[in-house]
């Protein structure tokens, strides 16, 4: 296989994975104020047999903060409401890391594409 093509394919796989990470983090951020919402975590399982890494979304089992609000419609029998276990700081950090990794993969793809074009120009002469 062409090594430059392989580099571009790996970069595309990386960009797709980081795009999924941003999607999951965005969903967590948008539901941070939803009582009882459990943070979603993207798990990537590399697979040599498949073209793309398998990903699955799991729920973070960390319990959310409980607050005493007996008049709240979602309060339990004791008057407590379980809040979301989403940390906005954690989600923003994860999103920033995914964005930077996406950009690194994009730069790798662009560099390989540029090298591929240069090679084709040399071969045309």
3D architecture notes:
Strand 1 and strand 2 (54-59) form a beta hairpin. Helix 1 (3-30) packs antiparallel against helix 2. With 125 residues, this protein is of the alpha+beta class. The strands form two sheets. Strands 1-2 form a two-stranded antiparallel ribbon. It has helices at residues 3-30, 88-124; strands at 40-45, 54-59, 66-68, 80-82. It has one domain. The chain is rod-shaped, with a radius of gyration of 22 Å. The two termini are 24 Å apart.
Per-chain topology:
Elements: H1 3-30, E1 40-45, E2 54-59, E3 66-68, E4 80-82, H2 88-124
Antiparallel strand pairs: 1-2, 3-4
Helix pairs in contact: 1-2
Detail the poorly predicted runs.
none
Overall number of structural domains:
1
Shape: rod-shaped
Radius of gyration computed on alpha carbons: 22 Å
Strand content: 5-15%
Largest sheet composition: 2 strands, antiparallel
Structural class: alpha+beta
Query: Roughly what is the average pLDDT, rounded to an integer?
Result: 89
User: How many H/I helical runs?
Assistant: 2
Helix proportion range: 40-55%
Within the largest sheet, what's the order of strands?
1-2
Report, as a whole number of angstroms, the end-to-end distance. 24 Å
Number of strands: 4
* SSE order, one letter for each helix or strand: HEEEEH
